[in-house]
Amino acid sequence: MSPRPAPDLKQRRDQVIELARALAESKGWGAVTMRRLAGDLGVTQPVLYSAFASRQALVDAVALEGFADLAAALAAVDPSPRARMRAYLDHAAAHPRVYEAMFSLPSGLPFAADDTPAPLRRAFSVIREAFPDADGTRAEVAWSVLHGLATLHAGGRLREGQVQARLDLAHRLLTEPGAD
Predict the structure, then answer these.
(1) DSSP state of 73
(2) What pTM did the predictor assign?
């Protein structure tokens, strides 16, 4: 019997990222180990390490894919602040472990720097479209507010049933003249 042909590196990376995302979403990041991923994919750990130098590199790859997905979700809705805010919160709630990789887990990704990766830049630019200003500070504040709401809600640290009220207040504070 001849050996299976090895998939190309991009295909292998995509398989590992997809499995890591699914495993993290269903069982949490603690369950995402290179040993478990290798076993689930039917390959050896060195095969995984040929695609990702470390578990951290894999988590960063999941985070980058999460930023690309977030940018697409935001770009798919009306460019108004309210629509983008709602889409952001919905996306974070629908993918809590990927969101955790994007913002809460240790990361080697550079934010707000010259070498910030394209998916992260794109996610910020879509938020900035809804909150334009001369230097991006307004978008940074909007992103910070949304991140705080998403993170506190996911952690069960906000009262249930107040999601829309919080969104309405944040929208008002970020968009109405004189609200600052």
Answers:
(1) H
(2) 0.91
